[in-house]
Write a structure and sequence with these properties.
With about 110 residues, the protein is mainly α. The protein contains 4 helices and no strands. The chain has one domain.
């Protein structure tokens, strides 16, 4: 289940809150990476938008991998969390900062 949507495996093992958080974080990062990488950018700021898309694609892959590994650990009976409390909050905050700075850089280069 976790291969289809990160967090679904955690939900299955009774960790609904962690599962929903990972699913939302994955959908957010995947959606933004597709938006920034698939949509053709304008000439000005295109490299910055592509870079932000690449960062979000790596973030989506990371969320998927960590969720998969954590679900596998739960299936083996190890209920210790892989990530410390608040790690996803700081990860989301850092990604928001990257998004903000990338969009500002793209807007500034488009003014030229």
């Amino acid at each position: 289940m976790n291969c289809v949507l990160p967090g679904a495996g955690l939900w299955r093992f009774g960790r609904a809150g962690a599962g929903v958080a990972r699913a939302l974080l994955f959908l957010w990062t995947l959606g933004l990476s597709v938006l920034f990488l698939v949509r053709p950018p304008s000439a000005a700021g295109g490299a910055g938008i592509r870079a932000v898309g690449g960062v979000f694609a790596l973030a989506a892959a990371s969320v998927w991998l960590v969720s998969l590994l954590e679900t596998m650990r739960l299936a083996d009976g190890d209920d210790r969390p892989m990530l410390p409390n608040g790690a996803l909050t700081w990860f989301s905050a850092a990604l928001t900062g990257v998004l903000f700075l990338g969009l500002i850089a793209a807007a500034m280069s488009g003014r030229g």
